[in-house]
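Lecture notes, unit on protein representations.

Consider one protein chain, 376 amino acids long.
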Amino acid sequence: MATFNETFRSHWLISIFGLILFVAGTVVLYWNEGRAVHTMMALDEAYDDIYSIQFTEEEQDQNFDGRIVHISGPILVGEPLTEPDYNIQLMAVKLRRRVQMYQWVEESIEHNYGESVGTEQSDSRTYYYTREWRDKIVDSRNFYNRHGHTNPTHFPIESNVQVADAVYIGRYELGSELKNKFQEYQELTSDIRPEDSSIKLHLGLYYHTNDVFNPVVGDLRILFSFAAMEGETYSVVGKMEANKLVPYVTSRGVRVLLVYPGALTVHEVFKLESRSQVLHTWWWRFIGWLLIFFGVSCNSKILRLLFLRIPLLICLAPDPQFPMTGNFVIAFSLALINASVAWILHRPLIGACLFLAGASPYLWFTRSLVDYHRLD
């Protein structure tokens, strides 16, 4: 059996790369769990202090400045958002203009020819040029064959998002950060054609072209969409400041500012936010575990040598015939134990459960080993 030094020298590059992946995964997991803990505690703090405004007569004389509040009701917009060139006028929180240009696009296929008698290995590449609608400029100066495949260098009309200056729910104004949270866009369709005859309206898209069905390079098409039309009901949570809703900062420095569509109670809003945070947390857990798994896989031979030298850890040594299974178990255990460190100080029960789950493979194999020796 090779020694530890011999194994490391023969796999030093992949071992160092694996160690970097392992450290990166550990950092991601620790950061993610710490963020999850602080976010959960911030939501708990906000929920305990919140007041739900019901727009009753008794509340008109109350002062909510500095308090975190929940309000629910239809959106009111002060002035419409407009696109005069396209005869668009809309009472909404946001109006997005997405501009695409018809451009040349280069694609290539590489052909590799292997060695044969009397020949040398040679590489060739075939280039294809097609025309597509693209959101960004395709730099044709980098094309292999630039002749006849020239794109414009800039957009004559840029993509843009308009945000309404004044947006209200009841008599309370929504701050700029709250308005930016309206991200659920819907496509805007209109039958009103632009006055400019050079702009064509087809299937909800506005074309700057002579022929919608036969565009040329440099032609534009524009799609409009909006977020939060006036009259739609939304539920928001934030701090009241001079009759304006702004982010609420908890004692831990976490900013709480929530917006969800529909007439939701305080409990429903926080339930949806908690669910969203859980999904976000599990996504980063998966990323962290994946980094640790690849890090362990890169060092599986070295780990096997280390575990074989420790009697109680022999059972965890990756099996050379089935290395993926052992690497999976080790990465899973290390990820859970790492996550438990962030939770155990703030939520001891959750931290203890994560730690036991991470240590369970070791405990199970150790118990099996002890039972085996008893039988002997």
